[in-house]
Specification:
The protein is 85% helix and 0% strand. The chain is an all-alpha fold and 106 residues long.
Length: 106
């Protein structure tokens, strides 16, 4: 898992590079390729967490409960990330626009 932390970070940064001046076909190919690489590296990080349950307990019921808890935790984190982060970004964006307009009026 730790071996892929740096490639995951690098691929995440590359995923969000600004390529606005590139041709359209390159943008599509770039997005597909980088997102594919990002997903593969993310899988290398995520799979050991799923396999870790087998080493934690030999009881099948406890394994099921741990797996369910992991799924619920992931769902909760995704809901928080997809609802709160955009609200924060839109609030920051509005503040930025208001500050920009204020500076233009000076």
């Amino acid at each position: 898992m730790l071996w892929f932390a740096i490639p995951y970070g690098i691929s995440t940064i590359i995923l969000f590079l600004n390529i606005a001046s590139a041709p359209y076909w390159f943008k599509i190919a770039y997005c597909l390729g980088i997102y594919f690489i990002w997903g593969i590296v993310g899988t290398f990080i995520n799979v050991p967490y799923g396999a870790m349950v087998n080493s934690m307990t030999s009881n099948q019921i406890q394994r099921t409960e741990l797996s369910n808890a992991r799924s619920v935790g992931s769902l909760g984190a995704n809901v928080i990330t997809t609802t709160i982060a955009p609200l924060m970004c839109s609030t920051c964006y509005r503040l930025y626009i208001n500050l920009y307009l204020l500076l233009l009026n000076l």
